[in-house]
Amino acid sequence: MSRQMQPTLVLVHGAFANSFSFAPLQAELGLLGHRSVAVDLPGHGFAATYPRAYQAPQDLGELAAAPGAIKGVTLADNAAHLIGVLERAKRNGPVVLVSHSRGGMTATVAANQRPELIDRIVYVSAWCPVDLDVSAYYAEPEMATVDARGLASALVGNPAELGLLRSNFRTADPGVLASFKAAFLADGTDDEFMVFLNTFQPDENLDVGSPDDRAQAGTWGRIPKTYIRLTEDTSLPLAVQDRMIREGDALTPENPYDVRTLTGSHLKWLVDPAPAARVLGEIAALQVPSAGS
């Protein structure tokens, strides 16, 4: 296959995460012969803020007041950055946009604005709001099993004053750590969980979008789409994932989701990436032009 025919998988991380999360997955994809690029959204990766008060010994009072670079970053900023990556990737051939968790919001906005840059959009247990804003889904029955209080207990500072969300992922509180593990990686070992937790950054932006940022039939709806369900996900429960699928199919019944399923929690597919890499490879193959086309 010529490199101009080879799809590029563009990987978009979720909340408090970054491109580092995808390193094991990219290794598996590379070994299967697939090209990929992991994106750091604005204020993420090496652009993130790690206040000195976040280091040990921690100073929680100072941490609650320290400024963060992600303050003022919006969903529109995320989408603009992603579109820039998609424009560059598209020069090399077909593009498969893959998003996880909160990253689905950014992927959806980019797809609304520039559908011609995306040959297929893939959501891996990710938000793709259609009927409601993301914040409103949290009041819906499908989210009733989510331990919001446990996750909120790690928040530091006043988000309205900081202009961002800040979580203390370096806490030693056993109750908070247990809540994190149950939400993100209940099916992983304690060591795997602690390693992944230490790849998280403390700050995330506040903007979860508006009705204008929901999936639009005339743009987003033209793109072939896949939803990969994670069966043991407790932070974005299977019932919510299935609702995303139903709403998307109802919006564009002529272009329904291609639905795949992986067994595992919110992060297991990244900790043990071989099964996900095989599925993504199958999906990427759908975008390879046939001979003579």
From TrEMBL:
SUPFAM superfamilies: alpha/beta-Hydrolases (SSF53474). InterPro entries: AB_hydrolase_1, AB_hydrolase_fold, Sec-Metab_Biosynth_Hydrolase. The keyword Transcription does not apply. GO terms for molecular function: hydrolase activity. Residues 9-275 form the AB hydrolase-1 domain. PANTHER family: AB HYDROLASE-1 DOMAIN-CONTAINING PROTEIN-RELATED, ESTERASE_LIPASE_THIOESTERASE DOMAIN-CONTAINING PROTEIN. This is Alpha/beta hydrolase. It comes from Streptomyces populi. The lineage of its organism: Bacteria, Bacillati, Actinomycetota, Actinomycetes, Kitasatosporales.
